Amino acid sequence: MRLAFLVIVVSSLASAARADRPRLLLVRPADPALARSLSSALAARATIVGPERLEAASSDAEPARRASEAIQQAETLYGDGRPDEALEVIRAALARDARALAEAADVSLLARLRLWEGICLAKSGREADARAALLAARSLGSGPPDPLRFPPDVQALFPGPAPPLPTEIVTNPAGAFIEVDGIPGRQRTPARIDLAPGDHVIRLRRAGHVPLALIVLAGERVEVPLERAAGPALGRALAGMRDAGVLDLDDLDTRGLIVGALGLDGRIDVQVEGRRVVLSRFDPRGHRVARSSGSPRDAEALVGALFGDDGPRRPPAGGSIFGRWWFWTAVGAVAVTGAVVGIAVATAEEDTISYVPVD
Question: What phi, psi does 33 have (nearest 5°)?
């Protein structure tokens, strides 16, 4: 029983020690050898987290499933000679899920819905509306209707190549990366881009803001506000930028946003200056609390100096004694000593033999 009590005490202290380890962001340097040595030295002192821990928003499969079912139903109705009913199914799907399908990485389902909308409109004799829908389908990447399934008059309505139209994209704040029809670009807002006639899916991504997807008609001027992201929304926004290849990890503000999104205790920046490596440790507010420099071949000494292993280190401004490793080490030592002494005293009391005088 006493042994179990001691194990529980020691295990609790070990868990507290692990919980006290700071969780820090590290954008690993390009040099693989330096990255490995730094990671190894840091692992003994902190829990290191990389940008890959950002979790992208889970994809919602429901809009895609509903769109696929709507297309299958429309094909059946069209084949049975009921194009007007097929058109109602397609337009209901567009009204319900067009926005969600535009936000998906693959816009092919949205293109197919617009293609079937045009086919059904053509069959109903509404040529002007059919041309507009087929133009939107082509601009989203759809090919023409299958000539083996649809008559020549429907084929003739599918638009051919046309000169692009200048389209202006403006955001507030500016600086959002622009992605057109699933193709990432390096252009930032405000920008003037040339788009083929018809509808296009424009995605806008800016660090610290919620990603936005729009269906834009070529030739329009679009001006939209971007919503500031926080908490899980910020994490999803940054993950989306990372997956699109437009997350600038060299930008210190971006690193600060990642620290906030993941709820970390700070970050470590690595700079290579000639033959020296400079490490800087920052708290969650972006204030530098420690710095070390030296040879890249001596990562252990670099990291030790950063964490104050080689001597007393002043706590950061505004820091609390409860956040210092040495405080909790002392508390743990006192707790273990008290537990051992208590067990020893209890054992001694049980082993004492009392003598009762007999008359």
Answer: -65, -45
Q: How far apart are CA 90 and CA 96, in angstroms?
A: 10
Residues 184-209: tens digit of each pLDDT: 777 899 999 988 888 888 888 887 78
Q: Is residue 256 part of a domain?
A: no
pTM: predicted TM-score of the whole model, two decimal places: 0.49
Amino acid identity of residue 78, one-letter, is Y
- Residues with Cβ within 8 Å of residue 42, at least 6 apart in sequence: 24, 26, 48, 268, 303
CA distance 286 to 259: 9
CA 19 to CA 267: how far, in whole Å? 17
* Pair of tokens at residue 91: 């337009």
Look up the domain containing 86 and give its range.
61-157
CATH number at residue 235: 2.60.40.1120
Regarding whether 148 and 71 lie in a shared domain, the answer is yes
* DSSP code string of 120-165: HHHHTT-HHHHHHHHHHHHHTT--PPPTTTS-HHHHHHS------E
